[in-house]
């Protein structure tokens, strides 16, 4: 089956949290329209960029793009940007059932509201290994009032101007900023108004006794979240498109770029409604109000507020329950894809914050990532060897001498657009190693997202990864496969994947500002097997004139 979409991307004024702001919409909506398909369907999306002055690229997050690496939608890696006033057509197959996302992948454009869900159902006649009465979908987000240009300029300036914590949290595109907390009373009465319909809370209406499959995704630009439905258990059954051995949580920790399905039964007192909440964890954000929605028991009035105060969130700096949830996520019995027992190559990626020429950056093995002008996929396929640094970045760091628990004494890093070339069909282990930032006693959570592949999550740990002790404890029995995974503060995360998808693939921190500041790498494999590139991805850097009609 072919599913066709025509999307008009526009800049518009909206007030998702009651504060009026320029946002980017698809066909007038943010979050954008949900793509619903069945496994093996072909999706065709004709995107018209109606932004007056901004380029565009849309990434299909969690879709591996097997055979279509040029439609991954990653500006600078797999395509040139879509220019204002032009139309670009993406075409790809959704080859796995599950919950996925799409979002802008050009600069920090995603956080202006250009995101949405992709829900892929099983083929006719097949069913999930769990039952539910209804299927619902929500995307969680954080929200800033300034523009991405403002943020980017601050991040790239000397002195460094950090973006700070978000002004609000959105539940399916709706949040609530307290207009009376604006620092300067505005002479513009339309700037912030609690009665705007854009910011009426998200309400999920449930029938008492019924069970809901709730698909929950995070598209935050910065925040790690704790999600809960007051008084209700959540049974986790899916993560990033893979079935999970079910486990029950009261609150679900979710990091930017992750998707989960939970089962929730409306089994509480049906005479009242309940809070749905999202709260920031892992960062101290006392001024960001929680995201609030309402879990409405039919036939109670949808506008009836729960009689309680919203439930409290776990302490922001308590890493332990987050580590425990990560470790609890295992592949479901009967759906286990066993990883290869050994790997051909191990790449250790140390994440640090540092400086280049006085500018604050994030680096991997002391190299801060920059994009080349010619997208990698085009440069590699067309053998344009001066398009980017041909020296690969380091395979690891000085493990014996680097102390991950202190502010590093030598803060200087280098920048490069070099990439890791992986031998086709080999098994690659990646160890994400976290460390102290440039502030004493501070280490952050980073959700890393891999394009073009799912990986097995072999283990998480605290402190410095020990290749003898820790690698011996890998879970090779029932590891979950994911496309996005956190590395916890001062911790490590071990992944394994097979480099079997010809193309050039970004692997990066899903925090917008961190990737912007250099926290990412690119893997390339099987370039000789990549088919003829479509001319629509060309036009920038040294690809000008290539295949042009
Ligand atoms: O990249 C970042 O910069 C700030 C802070 O470290 C600046 O001092 C912060 O919290 C980040 O995540």
Automatic annotation (TrEMBL):
Q: Which PROSITE patterns match?
A: MULTICOPPER_OXIDASE1, MULTICOPPER_OXIDASE2
Mind telling me which Pfam families this protein's record contains?
Answer: Cu-oxidase, Cu-oxidase_2, Cu-oxidase_3
Top-level taxon of the source organism: Eukaryota
Gene3D superfamilies cross-referenced by the UniProt entry: Cupredoxins - blue copper proteins
Give the matching InterPro entries: Cu-oxidase-like_N (IPR011707), Cu-oxidase_2nd (IPR001117), Cu-oxidase_C (IPR011706), Cu-oxidase_fam (IPR045087), Cu_oxidase_CS (IPR033138), Cu_oxidase_Cu_BS (IPR002355), Cupredoxin (IPR008972), CuRO_3_AAO (IPR034267)
NCBIfam families per the UniProt record, alphabetical: ascorbase
The name on file for this protein is Uncharacterized protein
The species this protein was found in: Hibiscus sabdariffa
């Amino acid at each position: 089956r072919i599913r066709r979409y025509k999307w008009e991307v526009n800049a518009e004024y909206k007030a998702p949290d009651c504060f009026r702001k320029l946002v980017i919409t698809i066909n007038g909506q943010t979050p954008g329209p949900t793509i619903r398909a069945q496994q093996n369907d072909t999706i065709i999306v004709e995107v018209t960029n109606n932004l007056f002055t901004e380029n565009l690229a849309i990434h299909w997050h969690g879709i591996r793009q097997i055979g279509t690496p040029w439609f991954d939608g990653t500006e600078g890696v797999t395509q040139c940007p879509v220019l204002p006033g032009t139309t670009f057509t993406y075409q790809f197959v959704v080859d796995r059932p599950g919950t996925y996302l799409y979002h802008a992948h050009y600069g920090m454009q995603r956080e202006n509201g250009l995101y949405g869900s992709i829900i892929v159902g099983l083929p006719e006649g097949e069913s999930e290994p769990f039952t539910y009465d209804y299927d619902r979908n929500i995307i969680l987000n954080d929200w800033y009032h300034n523009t991405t240009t403002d943020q980017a300029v601050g991040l790239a300036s000397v002195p460094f101007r950090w973006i700070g914590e978000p002004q609000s949290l959105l539940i399916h595109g709706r949040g609530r900023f307290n207009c009376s907390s604006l620092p300067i009373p505005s002479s513009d009465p339309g700037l912030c108004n609690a009665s705007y319909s854009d910011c009426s809370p998200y309400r999920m209406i449930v029938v008492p006794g019924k069970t809901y499959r709730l698909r929950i995704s995070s598209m935050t630009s910065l925040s790690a979240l704790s999600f809960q439905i007051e008084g209700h258990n959540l049974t986790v059954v899916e993560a990033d498109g893979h079935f999970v051995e079910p486990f029950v949580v009261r609150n679900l920790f979710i990091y930017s770029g992750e998707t989960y399905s939970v089962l929730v039964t409306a089994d509480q007192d049906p005479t009242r409604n309940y809070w749905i909440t999202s709260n920031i964890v892992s960062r101290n954000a006392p001024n960001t109000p929680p995201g609030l929605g309402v879990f409405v028991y039919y036939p109670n009035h949808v506008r009836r507020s729960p009689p309680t105060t919203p439930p409290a969130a776990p302490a922001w700096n308590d890493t332990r329950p987050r580590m425990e949830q990560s470790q609890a996520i295992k592949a479901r019995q009967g759906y286990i894809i066993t990883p290869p027992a050994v790997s051909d190559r191990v790449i250790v990626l140390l994440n640090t914050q540092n400086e280049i020429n006085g500018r604050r950056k994030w680096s991997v093995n002391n190299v801060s990532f920059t994009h080349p002008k010619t997208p990698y996929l085009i440069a590699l396929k067309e053998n344009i060897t001066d398009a980017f640094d041909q020296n690969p970045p380091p395979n690891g760091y000085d493990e014996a001498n680097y102390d991950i628990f202190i502010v590093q004494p030598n803060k200087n890093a280098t920048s490069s657009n070099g990439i890791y070339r992986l031998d086709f069909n080999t098994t690659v282990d990646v160890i994400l190693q976290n460390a102290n930032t440039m502030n004493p006693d501070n280490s952050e959570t980073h959700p890393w997202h891999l394009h073009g592949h799912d990986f097995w999550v072999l283990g998480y740990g605290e402190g410095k990864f020990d290749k003898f002790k820790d690698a011996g404890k890998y879970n090779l029995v029932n590891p979950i496969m994911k496309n996005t995974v956190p590395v916890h503060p001062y911790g490590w995360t071990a992944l394994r994947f097979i480099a079997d998808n010809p193309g050039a693939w970004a692997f990066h921190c899903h925090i917008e500002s961190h990737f912007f500041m250099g926290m990412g790498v690119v893997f390339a494999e099987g370039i000789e097997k990549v088919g003829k590139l479509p001319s629509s991805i060309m036009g920038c850097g040294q690809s000008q004139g290539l295949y042009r009609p």
